[in-house]
Amino acid sequence: MNVDETGATASGAGSATPDGAWQAAVGLWRGRTGEPGAVLLDGFHAIKHAVRFGARIPVAVTADRTAVLALAAELAPDVVPSLADLLTEVPAAVLRELVPRAHPTGVAALADRPDRQAALKTLRRAPRTAPVVVLDNPRNLGNAGAVIRLAAGFGATGVVTTGTLDPWHPTVVRGGAGLHFATCVEQLAVDELPPGPVYALDPEGADIRGLTLPDEALLAFGSERHGISDALRDRADALVSLPMRPQVSSYNLATSVGMALFHWSSGTAAGIETATGIETATGIETGAGTATATGTGSGAGGRSGR
């Protein structure tokens, strides 16, 4: 049965929300909203990734269960059985009340944040098989989410933020497409960072192309406007810059992180495929027809994203 705008039910293929179930789901949602450790998954792709990487999801709601399951069957058939068990159809007006700015895919869920102590243990593990990305006092929620998405894609050990930005803020989770659950994401002070050599991105640093970044590295990126803080600069073992032509002022933060992680994955002995079990993309001619830019500056490693 389908639930209409007012909450009345009507029979329809693909719907499996019995009478009263949507009210119970809404009650659970309202009870969990605002609780410490409750993570909003806004949109299909965030839920898809959370399911794939083992997140505990106590409630998921949509105004059109049939449409969401059809979307899953088209884009991610592996998660269809889990979504079929999770999804509760609610009236459209109720969904708008629960999630005022709902994702265009029309589905949302609440998940439990992973155990913090387990994440810290993973971040502090020695030796590590992949770097930790450090965002030093980031300001932009969307950029932070994009970095977490990149880090998960490259198989980084985790992403640590310093400063006041909450890396589990709903906007960050949305920007990360739910891939917080595919890596470790924590907020720490500079003096609490995991062990390992710190390679801080800074315009005055050595060109990253002349370096091999070790698996146990902490790759640190400054805020979008001000670069790395004095505290992190003092903690750094090396300052590193990204290649950039003169008169170009900066890269976006996520672009800088992607460049650094690609450089690490290209230079690591094991390689990203064997080190993390991630398949490399097919159909890409590595290096074919690519020339290095002349006059490339050792630019804005730490001042990305302005």
What's the short story on this structure?
The protein has 306 residues and is an alpha/beta fold.
Q: Could you describe the 3D structure shown?
A:
- This protein has 306 residues and is an alpha/beta fold.
- It has eleven helices and 13 strands.
Number of strands: 13
Class by SSE composition: alpha/beta
Task: Give a quick account of the main beta sheet: strands, pairing sense, barrel closure.
Answer: 7 strands, mixed
Total of DSSP H or I helical runs spanning 4+ residues: 11
Task: Note the gap between the termini.
Answer: 50 Å
Low-pLDDT sequence parts: 1-14, 269-276, 279-306
For the residues shown, what is the average pLDDT? 85
Shape: elongated
Going across the major beta sheet, what is the strand order?
9-8-7-11-10-12-13
Features:
seven-stranded mixed β-sheet, four-stranded mixed β-sheet, 306 residues, 13 strands, 19% strand, alpha/beta, disordered C terminus, elongated
Write the layout of secondary structure elements.
Blueprint: E1 2-3, E2 9-10, H1 21-32, E3 38-42, H2 44-52, E4 59-62, H3 65-75, H4 80-86, E5 87-89, H5 92-98, E6 107-112, H6 116-123, E7 132-135, H7 141-154, E8 158-161, H8 170-175, E9 184-187, E10 198-207, E11 218-221, H9 230-235, E12 238-244, H10 253-267, H11 271-276, E13 297-299
Parallel strand pairs: 4-5, 7-8, 7-11, 8-9, 10-11, 10-12
Antiparallel strand pairs: 1-2, 3-6, 4-6, 12-13
Helix pairs in contact: 7-10
